[in-house]
Specification:
438 residues, alpha+beta, eight-stranded antiparallel β-sheet, five-stranded antiparallel β-sheet, 23% strand, globular
């Protein structure tokens, strides 16, 4: 490891615990060695060391979507690789492996452009994109991964490769949805869209108004420019909670409309009429403030989460979902551009809704406390559910092989497994949502 410019940590070293920590605090990686890479050369050296010493490789930028906690092996920490370069003429950005969306958003905005970023600007842009990327403007522009133009990746043989759909079509395809199974992606070139602002924000209702049913009905027939979701949050009756939410079960409808404020106001009229609005923050806002729409937490937290993809969301499905009063629920409206064919193996594009179930736990807590509750929710939604899963929403134990398979079309999965045997026959990159080599 003498060739590495970045820091190297082993258990017991000062800085080891801070380096392995990420946003997901339910579990932490426990690698034999951590390499804090600073560039592609560091990544090459780390992969070569891992291969020579029989160490499986895990990769972490921000730790939002940690699949499994590495027990041993080598962890490549990409948080120092934060370069962003915008080409305003081509409307593209070159982003390095550890950059967060907030940096890309700021740099792109200087040129009147925006990336297909997600709800939380603090999330790592590259890992988010390689898992599909279901963003704020998804119904208008589709998955983030479909905007990838080129990939820079270090493969299991330690070689740095620059790929496009023309130069290495099979590996390029596999990387766009295969996450970290085929190498360590050191940079992406992505397309940007000509968006400077949104008509967006949040509408908060008391759940007694039946807002989830009303929202589900409202989503029917919406233009692609309107992306929305609703979260159901049981707030405790505690002093630290804003008084307007205290002790209530609140429905938070999140709006991101790219079609202008006047038309947005018209489209929201039936939604605002569902019942008394506790808080209404929907307004014109620059894309640099898009993180305020969901207002996702930025500090690390421990949570257990599952999800289902639905073909439809009738009233009976809403009622079945809302019987669960303990967990945080999130329903995202899909369709629109998300249903169109894309570049990689991201599938389940025929789903109309995604339903997530999240329970907060203490750091290092036992998911067994809430697992039955999550299973009950998925079982209740089964009549309307597809068989599919979304790769970016599989965490921890839910990245078991049978669940990972459901994130792909069966033919695509077989192709991915065959390509894995070509590019990583020894499964060096297996501390992830793993696709074993055929």
């Amino acid at each position: 490891m003498d060739m590495v410019k970045g820091p190297v940590f082993r258990p017991g070293d000062e800085g080891y615990d801070g380096e392995r920590a990420g946003f997901q605090a339910l579990a932490r990686h426990r690698p034999d060695v951590i390499v804090g890479v600073t560039d592609a050369a560091d990544v090459r050296a780390a992969v070569a060391h891992a291969a020579a010493n029989g160490l499986p490789v895990a990769v972490q930028a921000t730790g939002h979507g940690m699949p499994i906690a590495a027990d041993g092996g080598l962890l490549i920490s990409t948080r120092r690789m934060t370069g962003v370069r915008i080409d305003p003429e081509a409307a593209t950005a070159r982003i390095e492996a550890g950059v967060r969306w907030e940096r890309v958003i700021e740099e792109a905005a200087r040129h009147g452009l925006a990336p297909l970023s997600g709800s939380a600007p603090s999330v790592g842009a590259v890992s988010y994109t390689l898992g599909g990327g279901l963003g704020l403007m998804a119904r208008r522009y589709g998955y983030a991964v479909d905007q990838v133009r080129a990939v820079e990746v270090v493969t299991a043989d330690g070689e740095l490769r620059e790929l496009t759909a023309a130069t290495e079509p099979d590996l390029f395809w596999a990387l766009l949805g295969g996450r970290g199974n085929f190498g360590v992606v050191t940079a992406l070139e992505i397309g940007l869209v000509p968006v400077t602002g949104l008509y967006g924000g949040g509408l908060f209702f008391d759940l007694a108004t039946g807002v989830v049913r009303g929202w589900a009905e409202w989503t029917q027939g919406l233009p692609e420019e309107m992306s929305s979701s609703v979260a159901v949050i049981p707030f405790p009756d505690a002093p630290q909670v804003p008084e307007v939410f205290r002790g209530r079960r609140v429905a938070h409808v999140r709006i991101a409309y790219t079609g202008g404020a006047q038309e947005g106001e018209r489209l929201l009229e039936p939604l605002r009429a569902i019942g008394p609005v506790l808080v209404d923050s929907v307004k014109e806002l620059p894309y640099t403030e898009s993180g305020s729409i969901h207002n996702d937490p930025a500090e690390p937290m421990a949570y257990y989460a599952t999800h289902s993809l639905l073909r439809e969301l009738p009233a009976r499905a809403v009622d079945a979902l809302l019987e669960n009063e303990r967990a945080i629920l999130e329903i995202r409206h899909l369709g629109g551009a998300l249903a169109k064919p894309g570049l990689g193996p991201v599938v389940n594009r025929d789903a109309e809704y995604q339903v997530g179930v999240l329970s907060r736990l203490a750091p290092g807590g036992d998911p067994g406390e809430v697992r039955p509750l999550h299973q009950q929710v998925r079982a209740a939604l089964a009549p309307w559910a597809t068989e599919g899963r979304s790769l970016n929403f599989l965490y921890g134990e839910n990245t078991a092989p049978d669940q990972v398979r459901l994130a792909y079309d069966p033919d695509d999965y077989r192709r991915l497994a065959a390509l894995k045997a070509v590019w990583d026959a020894g499964n060096l990159f297996r501390l992830n949502a793993n696709i074993p080599p055929a």
